[in-house]
Design a protein that fits this description.
Two copies of one chain form a homodimer. By secondary structure, chain A is of the alpha/beta class. The relative contact order of chain A is 0.15. In chain A, α2 packs parallel to α3 and α6 runs antiparallel to α7. Chain A has seven helices and ten strands. At the A-B interface, α1, α3, β5, α4 and β6 of A face α1, α3, β5, α4 and β6 of B.
Chain lengths: ~250, ~250
């Protein structure tokens, strides 16, 4: 008898930003796979009889790789267990969901996916940043500063056009490259931008900046991941003057 | 004594896709502004003592305009009421949030924004469509088929590049224009696409299609709004052959 996989979006941190369905599904599972991105109080929704299985990975501690998580998942499903796999934010955005879904599909196990509040939208709510705006911002882009392959990183300069708001995940280390890539393509350096650090947590912090000060402000205000970077390019900003990057940004 | 505005994302339909915070905040309000996009059972979270105020607008019935909603909101805040303004999905995405926030800011009233599960992510979860994928899809774009001004509609062809998944809101009527705009720029007609209708509701329906059949399949399967259109352009698809639109699509 095969088990069941429930991939659950847990939102950005605060346990009351889980959906009601997410909280219920956690309570129904008999094994809960969690990692360091999911807050401890989310685990309180689990049944007292459930096994809590930490499957965290971290670049720097030689932690588990995705292939190890996939193996553990396969084992639990073959053992007939109902696995709740907790994901920070929404499972379909930067959650490696495709790989874990593939494990369950290959076995023929039942799958349910519970959506969650993705970090960018939680940050937008917390800091009152509308990511679309009538007649000004018609598209919203979510992208990442990190990619599986250095050569295949997103073409950031191609994403930010007039009428678009972009949210960059995991991009603190790329601030200078994002800033220069965009400005080299003529995106105005005066565009309003925001760093939002520790979204959904009590120490959430907003650092207002502008495109030509991205890296400088990240350094001066010691912005750390997890942080979301917003850059808004309203249609009405298309005629603003292009301002070169300040010279002190060069030292980043 | 000024009132308080709580803008609340209610998710795509199912009441268990509200966050726990959203359900609580609805219960704390003394007046609840709702419209036809929010399901009736969401209103059950309201306090029995609260006033339920319908503020729906509909293009075709001469319903309320945004300016009327803004006036009602201003009146309630001046009367010292705690207003829960319910929004379908997430308030910051296509929710006209900026205008309602401006009303409260102008008065100096307290504002809280509660994020929600936006329709595209609920659809992605329901239909198992990862919108990002390691080494294949690094960016996710949300855009609309409708815009405030015909001349300022999003430049769809510029949004869909290799490595990007786009979700189009409110786009059934624009299917043929989206299809031709993208294919004219060389986007392969064989790209996988999906219509997802009535997300989060019991009659949710998925229609699998491809870029060169968007309009045809929308017509043949009678896809109706509210529907989300997904088009995925994985990096590995950049070398696929460009297939012209089928001749029968021409009759759309």
């Amino acid at each position: 008898m095969l088990g069941k996989l429930t991939l659950i979006g847990c939102g950005p941190g605060a346990s009351d930003l889980l959906t009601i369905r997410a909280a219920r599904r956690i309570g129904e599972a008999d094994i809960v796979f969690h990692d360091r991105l999911v807050e401890a109080d989310v685990l309180e929704f689990a049944s007292p009889a459930a096994t809590l299985q930490y499957v965290g990975k971290k670049c720097t501690d030689g932690g588990r790789q995705q292939t190890d998580i996939n193996s553990m998942l396969r084992g639990a499903l073959l053992a007939g267990r109902h696995v709740a796999r907790l994901k920070s934010g929404d499972p379909m955005i930067f959650g490696r969901a495709a790989e874990e879904i593939a494990v369950a599909v290959e076995l023929g196990a039942e799958i349910e996916i519970v959506p969650g509040v993705t970090a960018a939208l939680a940050a937008a709510a917390e800091c009152s940043i509308p990511v679309t705006e009538r007649a000004e911002l018609q598209s919203f882009v979510v992208t990442t500063g990190r990619s599986a392959n250095k050569d295949k990183e997103p073409d950031w300069a191609n994403l930010l056009k007039p009428g678009i708001c972009v949210a960059f995940y995991m991009s603190v280390a790329q601030a200078w490259r994002i800033q220069t890539a965009l400005m080299a393509r003529g995106v105005p350096g005066s565009l309003q931008a925001e760093w939002v650090e520790n979204v959904g947590k009590p120490d959430c912090r907003r650092v207002e900046t502008r495109l030509d000060r991205l890296a400088l402000d990240a350094r001066q205000h010691r912005v750390r991941n997890p942080a979301i970077l917003f850059i808004r390019y309203p249609l009405s900003a298309t005629n603003v003057e292009v301002i070169p990057a300040p010279a002190d940004g060069m030292t980043i």
